[in-house]
Structure formats: C-alpha cells, structure tokens
Design a protein that fits this description.
Blueprint lengths: L4 H24 L4 H42 L6 H28 L11 H41 L11 H5 L1
C-alpha cells in the first residue's frame, strides 16, 4: 500500500499527539490499585464524552467525504487515481476509528468501579489501558483530520485555483489516453 508524503506527515502528527497525551501518565507516577480506581471513576464521564465526540466527528467526516467525491467528479479538472485512493484511505481509517470509538464507549459504560470481584491491582492496568485507548483514538482522529486537510488543499489548488501542474491533476496527455 502506497503512503504519500502528506499522509506520512499526518501520521507523524498523530504519533506526536499520542506521545504528548501519554506523557501525562508519566507525570502521575506509579499508582496503587485504589488510586487507579478513584481516577477511573472520576475520568469515565470524560472518556465517554471523548468517545461520543470521536464517533460524531468520524461519522461527519464520512458524510463530508461523499461531498468531496461529488465535487471531485463534477469538476472540469480531472484528478488522478491517487486522489481517489487517498480519499479511500481516509474513509477506511475513519471507519475503523468510528467502530473502535463506539466499542470503547460501550466498554467505558460498564460499571467496572462498582464491582467487588475485580482485584484492586487490576484497576491500575485498566486505568492505563483507558489512557492508552483515549490517546490512540485522539491521535488517530488527528491523523484523519490532517489527511482530510491535505485533500481539501489539493482540491482547492486543482479545482478552485486551476493548477494544472499539480501532481494529482491529469495533464492533457493523460486526459486523452
């Protein structure tokens, strides 16, 4: 699978965001099971809001991709196959984010902190898993937004500004063949 330079930059942006978000866990230091249980209890509502927001954002992005495809196909400028492959990559990643966010939302709604059968040391593991999941989901959505931004910029350059020497615009020779 080919990954363009702009997509690689978007991925690096997401990786940076994940590392930035996870660096906060190191500031907390080592937690006991009881402390982790309290932190989970206090952060669950925020995690649910985060998952809800990511679900809504990813669903909106999928709908906007349809609009983008409509604009791409009806323009006078012809776009290369790479443009459509890039849009397909965005749609695939966005769909994965949608599904994982929805599943995470459902899991985070389990009343785990109310259970007496879970050993206290597991709460530390559960807490770090919830932090990891939220960081990965946030970073992945940042990747999608950066990829979408690159696609929109390319469409503006090709369709709006009429740039014909753009790498994603077909030139006259390619249109005729």
């Amino acid at each position: 699978m080919y990954i363009s330079t702009s997509t690689k930059k978007a991925i690096w942006g997401g990786v940076f965001a994940i590392l930035f978000l996870l660096s906060g866990t190191f500031l907390l230091g080592k937690l006991s099971g009881y402390e982790a249980k309290v932190l989970i209890k206090n952060s669950l509502s925020g995690l649910n809001v985060l998952c809800n927001t990511i679900v809504l954002a990813s669903a909106s992005i999928l709908a906007l991709l349809l609009t983008l495809l409509g604009l791409s196909s009806t323009s006078n400028s012809k776009l290369k196959k790479d443009h459509y492959l890039h849009v397909m990559q965005i749609a695939q990643l966005d769909t994965v984010i949608f599904i994982v966010s929805l599943l995470s939302f459902l899991i985070f709604n389990l009343p785990i902190t109310e259970s007496d059968s879970i050993p206290p040391e597991w709460f530390t593991i559960i807490y770090y898993i919830t932090l990891g999941v939220s960081a990965i989901l946030s970073g992945a959505l940042i990747v999608v937004v950066l990829m979408l931004k690159n696609t929109v910029v390319n469409i503006i350059k090709i369709v709006g500004l009429g740039m014909q020497d753009h790498p994603l615009a077909m030139n006259d020779d390619e249109k005729n063949s």
